[in-house]
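A reminder from the course coordinator: this example appears on the midterm review sheet, so study it carefully.

Given structure:
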């Protein structure tokens, strides 16, 4: 990752955010996208951000949530050598409380995902981005996702899985995609080439709600964060860059097309429905 992008990542990760207290990060995101040509946005009553770039009949949609589990505190983001999922020491970012110098939790879940979405916004000509609030206490923002915004979405890609090699097959039992489908088969090799080899049944995140509400397939990729929900959470820079590159290749492969995958109610465990 070049120095300019690294500094942008550090700046975003240093913004404190907490469930229902996402105002500072919302302000940062809106200021960031204001300098990108061809971008419009709006917020719903809960504060979730809806972003559109370009003109198309159908859009890919990128997703990451705005809240974290860490209490609001001023923090300093520090560069350290930290292990990735393969046990290799890599450049990592960790947060320390500005007053006492103690680990405070960097909130890579899901500020790293927000950063990935914003980088891809700059790199592609056409896309939508959905940044919901209050995921950590039950997908509150995505539960109330604006149906009109998603009418012309062809598929959704979230960045809210752990470390550097995981993605979600299901969320609380909800299938995000069909493994034997044109949608998934067209990107399967790309996913594997980027080292995403652990396809898992995960707890919830926002694409679970989107899959239940709308008839398009979803993916949820690792965003490069480790020790999530703890004070010793950290982000590996190389993993964030890899997720950006993966997202770009997947969008280029899938294009601005509509893919169908209908959720069948009551076919999964009745959790958070």
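Designed residues:
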């Amino acid at each position: 990752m070049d120095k300019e992008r690294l500094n942008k990542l550090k700046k975003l990760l240093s913004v404190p955010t907490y469930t229902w207290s996402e105002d500072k990060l919302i302000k940062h995101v809106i200021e960031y996208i204001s300098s990108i040509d061809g971008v419009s946005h709006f917020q719903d009553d809960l504060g979730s951000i809806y972003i559109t770039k370009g003109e198309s009949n159908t859009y890919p949609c990128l997703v990451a949530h705005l809240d974290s589990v860490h209490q609001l505190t001023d923090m300093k983001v520090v560069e350290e050598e930290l292990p990735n999922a393969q046990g290799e020491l890599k450049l990592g970012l960790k947060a320390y409380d500005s007053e006492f110098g103690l680990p405070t939790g960097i909130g890579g879940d899901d500020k790293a995902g927000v950063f990935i979405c914003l980088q891809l916004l700059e790199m592609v000509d056409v896309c939508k981005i959905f940044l919901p609030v209050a995921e950590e206490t039950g997908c509150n923002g995505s539960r109330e996702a604006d149906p009109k915004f998603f009418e012309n979405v062809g598929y959704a890609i979230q960045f809210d899985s752990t470390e550097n090699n995981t993605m979600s097959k299901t969320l609380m039992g909800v299938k995000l995609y069909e493994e034997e489908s044109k949608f998934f088969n067209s990107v399967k090799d790309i996913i594997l080439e980027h080292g995403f080899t652990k396809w898992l049944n995960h707890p919830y995140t926002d694409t679970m709600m989107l899959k239940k509400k709308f008839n398009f397939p979803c993916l949820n990729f690792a965003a490069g964060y480790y020790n999530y929900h703890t004070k010793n959470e950290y982000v590996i820079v190389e993993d964030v860059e890899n997720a950006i590159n993966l997202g770009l290749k997947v969008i280029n492969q899938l294009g601005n097309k509509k893919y169908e995958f209908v959720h069948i109610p009551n076919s999964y465990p009745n959790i958070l429905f």
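The first helix runs from residue 3 to 13. The radius of gyration is 17 Å.
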